[in-house]
Amino acid sequence: MVSWIISRLVVLIFGTLYPAYYSYKAVKSKDIKEYVKWMMYWIIFALFTTAETFTDIFLCWFPFYYELKIAFVAWLLSPYTKGSSLLYRKFVHPTLSSKEKEIDDCLVQAKDRSYDALVHFGKRGLNVAATAAVMAASKGQGALSERLRSFSMQDLTTIRGDGTPAPSSPPPPGSGRASGKHGQPKMSRSASESAGSSGTA
């Protein structure tokens, strides 16, 4: 754990910040020699960082692994060993020079494919968004129509209640008997009158 922390600090301070500051000075002074020197270092350091991502996973158990990383960064930066310039001139530059055309073609193809894929997925995303918007609008319109229909039914019931007479309520239970008692003398009187008229005739 301590070795890992020390190696990260060394790589951060001496492998990144220190070269970045001297690269700034080389750009500011417009010294071509220093500029080329630090450009070669950054190319080697980029390859080192890429390889470090995998070696930290598979080789971290190796004895003195982090100490070797510290020694490698120091070897790259040392003005006596000139490790970055040596690696660049002996290995990186010849390899890139021989494979430069193939690498450029692969980059162009990857760029075209990524652009086509971006356009394709962009169109699909727009279609999905448009479909979702139409479905949401249709659902909202259906809910609005149902709401308006419920309001119209309430209004119709209110108008009916105001304009038409209320239905007659059934008579109370005792009203039939009372009407029967009052109606019987009227029936006998009319019968007697009809009998009297027939007798005089």
Task: Please outline what is shown here.
This protein is mostly helical and 201 residues long.
If you had to describe this structure to a student in words, what would you say it looks like?
This is Receptor expression-enhancing protein. Residues 188-201 have a biased composition (Low complexity). InterPro entries: TB2_DP1_HVA22. By secondary structure, the protein is an all-alpha fold. It has a domain at 1-81. The protein is 87% helix and 0% strand. It has helices spanning 2-29, 32-58, 65-77, 83-163, 175-200. The radius of gyration is 51 Å and the shape is elongated.
Lay out the secondary structure.
Elements: H1 2-29, H2 32-58, H3 65-77, H4 83-163, H5 175-200
Helix pairs in contact: 1-2, 1-3, 2-4
Q: What is the arithmetic mean of pLDDT?
A: 76
Query: How many helical stretches?
Result: 5
What best-fitting shape do the alpha-carbon axes yield?
elongated
Estimated structural class: mainly alpha
Strand content of the residues, in percent?
Answer: under 5%
Query: Biggest β-sheet, characterized?
Result: none
The Cα radius of gyration reads 51 Å
Order of helices and strands: HHHHH
